[in-house]
């Protein structure tokens, strides 16, 4: 269907709202930016008052019309940027007021609402008075016409603190049109005499009111305080506005119907346009292909999107050509207003072939390095979600025609016209088939039809002004249960590119969209450049190591019983500096960090953040394996840029307490003597103080907390085996101006260690943790600020820094080196003197009245030595002063695999052309000589300095550059550390030397390496002496995406494959039980600058062994262990003690004989007819270190069944059955009875042993336990074993069905 009348009217209203953003107002010079408002935005109500006397029309206008004229007056208000002489925002037009007498007093009292994010006196409100004159139409005397005349304009500084007393301030009314402000200096306009005075007043609204208006009003869009904006009512201003009722909306199976041959025509037009843009023949280009089809869906009120739009990928149905999304989209908050529309935009991402140009074509090409992929906006359409006066949202099946071509749209994007071809006769008909189809269900997730999966729902950013009281219960339940998934990836990856209220933006999107909310390398455009460069590259997607279905990052909510157990333990409370308890928040998944949130975190007065990670309790999963003694644990984790931390041991429960499955056991710190501490829990604190760390550490920490999750590994202290990992998102630790925040949660411990080629994934238990962030003020002197991408030359001071005077200081009276030489000479001469010379010296001293030392001071040799030292000291002092004048300093904080890019401004100080060579011996530092790489670095890091081709010459490993007299150039440097081990800080020099060897400048680099922050740690066990080969899929990466990989060890063979995207590596495993650790870094670009993810890989070498047993009976296996140089007390532990356990006494503590082979027995009792990899650790009991490791492949074989029974039971129904068994032997036999699935079928209590005489029969009593879930054909084995040998005598099979 076509657009209905309401949707068409909404489209026309959105077309008239043309909002010019302040950011696009024009070029700005250095230091001329507007002052951004800290903390978000402000809202000001400007009331245009009255005129004492209205200016009269010129006599020539009054004489123009013979009858008396009838007129009305209105105002037009617009925000004016006096800094750049541009009008911004939109123009407000008030209703007309009738005018009886043109010369009388005019009372207006029109309130205008201005919503701005800039506080600057150079931002003015221009108010123009317009008179509408009704007069006879000159062409038709019987008709009347209306002509508008400008009476003048006033300039109101609404952003300044204007004192308002009893009388309102007056502003002069200038004659003429305000459009002259774009070309006439503002000072000249203000120097003109005013023709009248306009009274006015301002009222800055409360920040709470401003926050409620923010989601509905664009910046600098002027509205009347008496109007109603779609979604919110402004008539209550200055009190908080009255929010409108809202409801949720679910969009089921959204799809887009395409015309026949639509994509073929589109690719043909793109191919032709691409060839024309690059001035090449279209026949020489390769194939163009559509790699992704996107649908952008958002709620719009005609002025802006109420929340960031949802972006999903569509799949093309081959049979019909329709683009479909099989999931469901959830819009949590949709106001019930007739002006609210659902805006849908169709986008196509095209993969373009590499451009192969000849030399002549390369010279004619308009673009040097075109992008490989590009996104095109195709069509859009609005759909009104509710009609005026209705009580609910639109529901049912809907279909709306999408509007293609260059039409105005809320995204302010240029839509591609691919069907407007004059040669295509059916183009107009085909365009009518482009339509959006979906099923709308109001209410959200709880109101979906049965069988509809809402896992793809997105919880969008909630507007502040919502009617909480009018929301339904299902909306509150939905907000608690909705989960974040694919949400507006460009908003996170490209900063403020999609403001949806600004000018048109480029259509170039990333080929592989990522939900990367905070990236300082590359930086966010909305944040200060210097703050953003000093932080880590924070990659979002993580590898899927084993395809586990268990979610390591999912939270299990605390039950009331859990909260009661934690409360009884009496854990110490987190408090701030004043002793007040920390604000309790809820744990949140990682998400985007807006520029305002980042600015608020970075500019917090409490700039020191102390992050606490408290371990409270641990609960074992019922039925999970218990490794080791199970009474002591320890944890390993890496937080931020701190090194990998291993905690002290903690005990489960109090003294004498036996841990129960599913019940939280409180953790107690253990002292060095093995005693429990007095306070429960274990607290780790990490203090991030910008006064003693890197510049702008607060902004870097905020980005880390917003996008990362800390991985905590739980270890069994006795066996030194990992029980599993937990992943705790850190987003909730952002304090948002508060002094302290904290949250407590219960996180599953998931075991994901891969044993040789056997992946394993299971939930072993739950860890109760509390995380908090306590703010305080720094006691150290803040470092910085400085721009890490630019280094100014030495001797040049920034403007406004003032003159620095050197104060003359007296030199030391005695030079240390000279004094040492003179003393050595005196000692040498004194050794040759005898007693007679001493007597002569004394006589001369008494005769001449001076000491022997004064006589030696007059010695010619000493005077000559003093003169030589003085001349040398002058030369060294002069060289030192010159070197200091030529030397500039720069600090680097590298992390393994991270690129640090900066440019040095080199100046030729000579009056003649020179060729300077760049010489340095700093490891990992390179001069960027490749032009394309230089451009890529500039784009990535937001550096806007000029670049040139053939900029430098590299010959014989020496980089040189030519400079004219006193010319300034920028030398690009790139520092990328490839050493995983954190080195000590060091200092290196870079010298710029001319052809004669004279240094023109010196750059001194202070390098302080940082620890490598890994997104995730992956652990593997491999057989010693063999190659470990593994492949890790990259989640969230398109199949055709191209990635690049680098490992921290040279002996690791690694790479990245596409379609599907996956990482592979190969490593030679060492001798058992050694552990090899290395880091893998995945990059998004070929220059290895943008980091996609960082993963730490741990490979433990172990001896491979095998054991086989029949299901239902035990089998033993012996391990040969060679003792060391001295005896040890050791114990053997396995990762699956229920099926593989050590023989006594190796399970507790046994002596390992030195310099001999020791036989260690293992007992294998399989639980299922399958093969499983089991890890065994031999641990030194005293030193707590692993002295041996094995990988045991335990295989269980299915026994021979003597009988098979089929049993069917209903749900929640149990039963007891008896099976007769006869002893066919000639002696009395004692049998042991057990089953393979005791949770389903078990032997009756007290009947697990059966004694039967020769030829007699006995009864086996079986209990069938009730089940709540249906199952069919489950095979359960009943084992009848010989009690003496443990061997299977017979085995019965039961095929069990429930339901």
Verbal overview:
One of its GO terms (biological process) is negative regulation of canonical Wnt signaling pathway. Residues 471-483 have a biased composition (Basic residues). Residues 463-510 are annotated as: Disordered. Residues 564-751 form the NPHP4 C2-like domain. With 1299 residues, this protein is mostly beta strands. It has 18 helices and 68 strands. Strand 67 (1271-1282) and strand 68 form a beta hairpin. Helix 12 (595-602) crosses helix 13. The two termini are 48 Å apart.
Q: What is the topological layout?
A:
Blueprint: H1 5-16, E1 42-51, H2 59-62, E2 70-81, E3 86-93, E4 97-99, E5 106-116, E6 123-136, E7 144-156, E8 170-173, H3 186-190, E9 196-204, H4 207-213, E10 223-224, E11 228-229, E12 232-233, E13 242-243, E14 246-257, H5 262-278, E15 289-300, E16 310-316, E17 323-324, E18 328-335, E19 341-351, H6 359-364, E20 373-384, E21 396-401, E22 403-404, H7 427-431, E23 435-442, H8 473-481, H9 489-493, H10 529-533, H11 560-569, E24 583-584, H12 595-602, E25 608-620, E26 632-637, E27 645-646, E28 650-652, E29 665-670, E30 676-680, E31 682-688, H13 697-707, E32 709-716, E33 721-729, E34 740-751, E35 754-755, E36 762-776, E37 790-791, H14 816-832, H15 835-848, H16 852-857, H17 860-886, E38 887-892, E39 899-907, E40 914-920, E41 925-927, H18 931-941, E42 953-955, E43 958-963, E44 968-976, E45 986-993, E46 999-1007, E47 1016-1023, E48 1027-1033, E49 1044-1047, E50 1053-1057, E51 1062-1068, E52 1075-1083, E53 1091-1110, E54 1115-1122, E55 1128-1134, E56 1140-1142, E57 1150-1152, E58 1157-1164, E59 1171-1180, E60 1186-1197, E61 1203-1209, E62 1215-1222, ...
Helix pairs in contact: 12-13
